[in-house]
Write a structure and sequence with these properties.
binds pyridoxal-5'-phosphate, PyrdxlP-dep_Trfase_major, Aspartate Aminotransferase, domain 1, 2 domains, Aspartate Aminotransferase, domain 2, globular, aminotransferase, pyridoxal phosphate binding, 361 residues
Length: 361
């Protein structure tokens, strides 16, 4: 079976010596490997301020708190995502307010965001779903007009671009996930990017019990709640090695994605996610759209190609029942959605075979 997602590690002979060095260094908790990883990640993806975190969820929780989200506030978000995008809003005691999604892309619809803003709205969470950037210029303008924070959930979108900039740099905060099946994994781990450096000290305290590293534990005075959300040296070391290999991984996702876009633009009944012309997707998953998605899924599965939807619309979970409302854009998108294999492991021959099966279907 050609899978939809696959774990990627650099060759053993490259990774293992680094892993062995950190494991027996005597310093496996947060330390220099983490700080080196932060610097290398920031440089590689052209981010101003980057902090290593234990997960993407931890980074998102931090972003929400730093954006001032607290009990009783509202956060406008998308139901078309993995659950941590929205459960982390509940960590803050805030209410999730759904914006509908654009049925052409599966991403949050800026017009729907605008009509859902109230005096309680503190932030917008925009997910670059499957690696396709949201309509960032419009969302940035809305956030600025109403004085609310824009948080980019880039968990699916490492390497994507918008208006020539790396994804995650246009929002007030951005988060990346290095969980097992993402473009780049550190087993678990994440990054928080911060546009305004005034938040860096608070973010560092938030990721480590409310304290700053380097201050003697007998002298520290905790003044705000912090969590055990920091990155370990072991994670940082894996990340440092992964960054040396990430370009070829991203290039292959993009090359396969562009190939499918080109092929499917001339097949009747088959469409694909369309995003803002300023956006450069990184195709973590390939989003095919068709009224016949169930039949195509069956034909691909029978031919040994994994194809399916990957997430349940979050509004369907009981925990979000207070946020219930009609979401016609989401319903239209979800019905037509089918993810097909597109990542670094899909060879040129395999992608041709996948297109052939779809053409024949
Ligand atoms: C869109 C999205 N946001 C946030 C997360 C949370 O990331 P993590 O698993 O690293 O906590 C994930 C993935 O798991 C995700 O897919």
């Amino acid at each position: 079976m050609i899978p939809i997602v696959k774990v990627s590690f650099p060759p053993k002979e490259v990774l293992m010596p680094v892993l062995e060095a950190v494991l027996y260094s005597g310093q496996v908790a947060e330390g220099q490997y983490v700080y080196d990883f932060e610097e290398k990640f920031a440089k590689h993806f052209n981010m101003p301020n980057v902090l290593g975190m234990s997960s993407g969820t931890a980074a998102l929780h931090a972003a929400l708190v730093l954006a001032g989200v607290g009990a009783g506030d509202e956060v406008i978000s998308t139901p078309m995502t993995a659950e941590p995008t929205n459960t982390s809003i509940l960590y803050c005691g805030a209410k999730v307010v759904w914006a509908d999604v654009d049925p052409l892309s599966g991403n949050i619809d800026p017009e729907s965001v605008r009509v859902n803003i109230t005096s309680k709205t503190k932030a917008i969470v925009a997910v670059h779903y499957a690696g396709y950037p949201v309509r960032l210029a419009e969302l940035r303008a809305i956030a600025d007009e109403y004085g609310i924070a824009l948080i980019e959930d880039c968990a699916h979108a490492l390497g994507a671009t918008y208006a020539g900039k790396g994804i995650g740099a246009i929002g007030d905060f951005g988060l990346f996930s290095f969980q097992a099946i993402k473009h780049m994994t550190t087993i678990d781990g994440g990054v928080l990017s911060i546009a305004d450096e005034k938040h860096i000290t608070a973010a560092k305290k938030f990721r480590w019990f409310g304290m700053l590293k380097g201050v003697p534990r007998t002298e520290v005075d905790i003044q705000s709640i912090g969590y055990k959300y920091n990155m370990s040296n072991v994670t940082g070391a894996i990340g440092l090695v992964q960054l040396d290999h990430i370009n070829s991984i991203l290039d292959k996702h993009k090359s396969n994605g562009h190939y499918y876009d080109q092929q499917f633009s001339s097949i009747a009944g088959i469409d694909f996610a369309r995003c803002d012309p300023q956006a450069g997707p990184s195709y973590w998953l390939y989003t095919l759209l068709s009224d016949h998605s169930t039949d195509i899924e069956k034909a691909l599965n029978e031919a040994g190609v994994a194809a399916s939807k990957l997430h349940k619309p979050n509004n369907l979970h009981t925990i979000f029942s207070d946020s219930k409302k009609p979401l016609p854009g989401l319903d239209a998108f979800y019905k037509r959605l089918l993810h097909i294999p597109c990542g670094w492991w899909v060879s040129d021959e395999e992608r041709e075979r996948i297109v052939d099966i779809i053409k024949r279907g």
